[in-house]
Write a structure and sequence with these properties.
Layout lengths: L1 H5 L6 H18 L10 H14 L11 E5 L7 H7 L4 E6 L2 H14 L4 E5 L2 H8 L3 E7 L4 H8 L3 E12 L2 H14 L2 E10 L6 E9 L11 H6 L3
Helix pairs in contact: 2-4, 2-5, 7-8
Length: 229
């Protein structure tokens, strides 16, 4: 499995061991928690770990940058990115207490530094972290018109929101164009990739923050879902 990962990002022996430890924790807790239905090792490495690394594949000069993993869940992509890029300052945000406890267990077991777990909703956490992150990433959280409102307020002006989507991203993107503009963002790139062994198509939507996001966003989640921008 290491060869698949090394094809996309060079990792040290320590980093590869951390990734394997993470895999072991993930599949162990998946049996008792709703973390992932994918537990076979090859699938985890490709559909979760390789997939996670794709989100920063086109980025450079990541040292010291701040990254928010919005709706981190099992720690994908945030834990994988922290392992691969140790100099990143990572925040994992999730609203489910049990998932946050799992994330902290992974951090402690792997002895990761400069990575924080926040157990809160995005609409609440934004009040103290408005426009403070260089990068915000999100994977399998919500449709893009909803996700953009939750994410873009966290991004610094000049920073990026990187939305991880599948092959059918275009319909979501069409529905989210208005929201992205209102929230100060602009689609600046689309990167499409094929996972190894024909395991699927992935697209990274790069949305750059060009203007400040008004402080009245994001709205409460119920309102966002009821009437997306």
């Amino acid at each position: 499995m290491n060869n698949i990962i090394l094809n996309i990002q060079p990792l040290s022996a320590l980093q590869l061991e951390q990734l394997h430890q993470y895999y072991e924790l993930l599949i162990t807790k998946a049996k008792i928690m709703n973390l992932t239905t994918i537990t076979e090792e090859q699938e985890v490495y490709i559909k979760h770990f390789y997939d996670s690394l794709l989100v920063l594949k086109e980025e450079s000069s990541l040292d010291g940058k701040t990254l928010l993993d919005l709706g981190s869940g099992a720690g994908l992509p945030g834990i994988v990115l922290k392992i691969a890029y140790p100099a990143l300052k990572v925040t994992l945000l999730d609203a489910t207490q049990k998932k946050c406890q799992f994330l902290q267990e992974v951090i402690d077991t792997l002895a990761l530094k400069d990575i924080t777990v926040i157990c809160d909703r995005a609409e609440h956490f934004i009040k103290e972290k408005h426009e403070t992150f260089d990068l915000v990433v999100a994977r399998a959280v919500a449709s893009l018109n909803i996700l953009s409102e939750l994410a873009l307020g966290f991004v610094k002006k000049g920073g990026k929101f990187l939305a991880m989507k599948g092959a059918s991203y275009q319909e979501e993107l069409n529905s989210a164009t208005s929201a992205i503009t209102i929230l100060g963002g602009k689609l600046t790139n689309k990167y499409q990739y094929e996972l190894p062994l024909l395991m699927g198509t992935r697209c990274i939507l790069e949305i750059t923050k060009e203007k400040n996001t008004p402080h009245n966003y994001p709205r409460p989640y119920a309102k966002i879902k009821q009437k997306p921008l």
